[in-house]
Amino acid sequence: MNLSDAASDEERVGPEPAEHDDKDWTVVIANGCPECSFIGAGPSQLAGLIRESIEFWSDALRRPGATERLHPTVWSPLEYACHLTDLSHVFHERIDAILTQETPALANFDGEQAAIDGRYHERGVDQVIEAYADAAEAVAVQFLRVAPDQWDRKGRRSDGMVFTLSTLGTYYAHELVHHEFDVRRLQGRVQRWHSGRRHLAPLEGSE
């Protein structure tokens, strides 16, 4: 095997799988998240938070090094954005199911396997920015259309966890905030969520 063949094999195999995350993140719904300082998001906050995240990822993916991993088993900012794109599609389906069915079963989503199958590391920055914007906006519109008497409608995950539309929205919002926190930490800054406001430390070396 020559060097070019070896390089081709490495490209096909892809990077190492991301570190496995077996935490039960549903605790953030009631207790908030001590890691990213997320303390909840009510129905009236969801669409605005989601749309702010679109701007964040558009900026983050255009920064130097956005396609590179700083550690072999930690996603690059690009891969995080791909994850949130796929996750947004999953939540769109879950929201639709809860609105149209009585306590539907909510399909599982294995984000780590999706990253491998979807070869996130190979995707182009512009493609991912557009894909996330479209997927997230679709979820924002869904939440805006939820009637006041629909927020208590329920869906059941395969592990038995029951979500209302309201708690599902909080769970999704935490995903957005936490992964923004992950990427800001990677890119040299930390975003905190406190009392409904974002507190952003500037990039090192910036004003």
Protein model, in words:
The protein is mainly α and 207 residues long. The chain has seven helices and five strands. The protein has helices at residues 3-13, 28-31, 43-60, 77-100, 111-117, 125-144, 165-186, and strands at residues 105-106, 154-157, 162-164, 191-194, 197-200. The strands form two sheets. It has a three-stranded mixed beta sheet. The N and C termini lie far apart (51 Å).
Please name the defining characteristics of this protein.
three-stranded mixed beta sheet; two-stranded antiparallel ribbon; disordered N terminus; mainly alpha; 5 strands; single chain; 207 residues
Q: What is the tally of beta strands?
A: 5
- Work out the oligomeric state of the chains in this entry: single chain
Total DSSP helices: 7
Order of helices and strands: HHHHEHHEEHEE
Main β-sheet description: 3 strands, mixed
Average pLDDT rating? 85
Q: Give the CA-based shape.
A: globular
> Uncertain spans, ≥5 residues at pLDDT below 50?
1-11, 189-207
N-to-C terminal Cα separation, in Å?
51 Å
Helical residue percent? 40-55%
Instruction: Give the DSSP E fraction (strand runs of 2 or more residues).
Output: 5-15%
Radius of gyration: 18 Å
* Biggest sheet strand line-up: 1-2-3
Structural class assignment: mainly alpha
